Amino acid sequence: MNRNLKFSLAAAVMILFALQLSAQGPGGGRGFQMSEEDIKENVKTTAETLGLSDDQHKKILAVDMDFYNKMQIERQKMRNAEGPPPDREEMRSKMMKMRDDRNEAYEEVLTADQYKQFIELQEQRRNEMRQQREQNNPDGQSGERPARGRGRG
Question: Is the separation of the CB atoms in 102 and 63 below 8 Å?
Answer without folding.
Answer: yes
